[in-house]
Batch of 3 targets.
Target 1
Amino acid sequence: MGILVLKFGGTSVANVERINHVADIVIKKRKEGHSVAVVVSAMGAETDRLVELAQAINSDPHPREYACLVSTGEQVSMALLALALMAKGQKARSYTGKQAKILTDDNHRKARIIEMDVEHIKQDLDAGEVVVVAGFQGYNRRGDITTLGRGGSDTSAVALAAKLNADECQIYTDVDGVYTADPRVVLDARRMERVTFEEMLELASLGAKVLQIRAVEFAGKYNVPLRVLSSFEEGPGTLITYEEKNMENPIVSGVAYNRNEAKVTIRGVPDRPGVANHILGPVSSAGIEVDMIIQNISEDGCTDFTFTINREDYKATIDILERTASELGAREVLGDIKSRNYRL
């Protein structure tokens, strides 16, 4: 059989008992004849704890030092899982993002992967070892630690699966697949056996938290079959792949919502060609992802420009837009989180 890449989220490695259970899952895959590479997240709410520590010291921590701190959670998980596998008689080797040679750009908080060198990982797999890689992290050309953004372990796993030409990338979480709606809200939501990359991309972008949107984009680009499974109970999960034959049937695959968005509006923007790029270009350059965009009908040569972003990017976006709006000659920048207007 071929290679499987298994990714385990924070709830799956929340404590020693769960880590030992993950080791059992990995060993079962090995006994089935697969070569196995594993990507792990930090234990439980460890990343949140580290973020709180950083902000207790400095409300706006330096990006390089912030990345050094929050990346340590995954290193604890990878070492503990490697030790658990060894204790059960399975050869294993752990890798940090840098040791796994995951090269990224210089954005310490939301880095993009530039390239990966997996030859040494292939050698370990060929030797019968299980490779355990710390998710969420890489390094830049200066050798500094970078992080891939919240949920970045999914991206680490998909990127590794693409480079290894894995048969499948299996994402283990605390749910047994992708549902038509959030089962904690809609009691009769049902698990879907298959969804397409396009459908999953829409669901992820609209708030479905089962997969990080960048991981879905990556999987679709490199045609990596994804499967969402539960580490708490056995089952087939949900396979995410390309279109099926019935792709044109007029059906609704699922419903998602997002409570973690912020809305920003620039009022009185001169309505001229290129204005959207002038507004969103600096935001994108800062590594901030824009979701919904609305531009009102022009009145008196001016328009209102509204878009949504993740809440954690709110302050940085407002700072950028205050400069941008001034350059454009816009009247004001409005944000809806802190109930205050940012007037120029």
Target 2
Amino acid sequence: MDTLEQMLQDIRLEAEITAPYTGRDHIDARVLAAMAQVPRAHFVPAQLRHRAYENGPLPIGHGQTISQPFIVALMTDLLATRPDHRVLEVGTGSGYQAAILARLVQRVYGLEIVPELARAAQARLHALGYDNVEVHVADGHAGLVQHAPYDGILIAAATPQVPPALLAQLKPGGRLVAPIGQPGWSQTLTLLEKRADGGFNRRDVLDVVFVPLTGAGDTAE
């Protein structure tokens, strides 16, 4: 059974292996420290807790998954967060990525379209003391305009293109990280940086596979 320390070692190793593609041979120390402080075992189903620290995705029900730890670390690293940042996370799932972000930023707003997952994630995060996270039952295509603009946006589900509402809700100078491509195929983990003129600089980072971003674009509640 893998341990938390083994998971962190696996993340460091995979960062070195993928450096020719990602352009970074290590994960920022703040991100690794956050991952060391978040017990991933609390965010996976009870029957899978013996596999919680494997460096791979795991099912969490409703056709959704908790992402591979290295991908969580990489996406968080690419956001380049600061303690005063406010971040929108699309596809909260079990709440693991939100918990990592909560240790790095001022406020996290999570969107999850599956009501059962959203409510369980909010309860779990509250029980673990992450009081700077709000999880909303909502279709991520529309974002969360009432708290925009955001310093960073992380989309944890595959989308053929970034929904326009999310692009509009990102601050100038902000970063958006998302797996872009057709669901059912591999996607490209992509970093978008918003310029002062409203345009975007794009960098393709790594081939990945995510579950699809679902919904029709209207917020659920």
Target 3
Amino acid sequence: MTIILFILIFGLVVVSHEFGHYIVGVKSGIHVVEFALGMGPVIFHRDGKKTRFTIRLFPIGGACMFEGEDEDVTTEGAFLSAGVWNRFATVAAGPIFNFILAFLLSLILVGFTGSDKPIIYDVSEGGAAEACGIGPGDEIIRLGGERIHVYREVSLISMLGSGSPVDVEYRDAETGEINRVTLTPLYDEADGRYYFGFLGAGSYEKPGNPLELILYSGYEVGYWVKATYKSLLMLIKGRVSPKELSGPVGIATVVGQSYEETKSYGFLSVFLTMVNITVLLSVNLGIMNLLPLPALDGGRLVFIVVEMLRGKPVPQDKEGLIHGIGFLLFMLLAVVVMFNDIMRIIH
């Protein structure tokens, strides 16, 4: 069951990404040579009028291959024959469709489970929050200058905090007034981290109307965007070890563990848990692909922006070489991440 769920989840995320490239590319007059799900040898294919649709052996990625991509070809239907803004939109569409998928799935998630509004359930006795006059029922509006929409954002800021004083804006539960205080987190020796002294949201609250459903579904996606880019910043700053990165093997492990933990609660619980994982993965794929690195969509967008600025494209052989080197480096990274995932499972 783990393998089936992993393939369904990963497949949906990858298909949405590649479909974004495909549909915008076709609308821009670019010929899509192949739409592939997976990597490695082809195990199934179907030829459309203009595009070959394939399923490849290893379910760890996908590709939307355009005619003349990374080549100096400007014949009708070739990638370079399209206008610069059409090419920009085609490349950007992959990550954008990941965010669209995450939002659509969030509508289901929030509709069934509700959202963790940033209302404090309780405060720890003698904690930093209590010392500032913050109490149960108060609603956090801003924390450290960030607008807060769901309580998990509070937990995220707390978890990544370094102990520096934080400005808190909150709505008092009794008076309804908005108060502003400066809170200094307290260090917990046992856990080795700083705490604000908030004791979490009491429960998830379902949206009262369609507008609120749409709003909080957007907040759900926004939370995962924040969580992803903050994790990347921690990785860059050395506060997170590269060994903690997970690839397909690690994701499959999480899917399997989540299934085992929720299957006793019934189909709906399993379904919503898998939807939540899919939202997380879709947002992650969208953000990772927007990084300005060779072989990624973000790297290709950089070259298109350079073309806009200089008035002519970068020679395709040079761009193709850079992306090729980037792809090899990412494959090497994938092998290292897979090794770490396997070692975690073994130990």
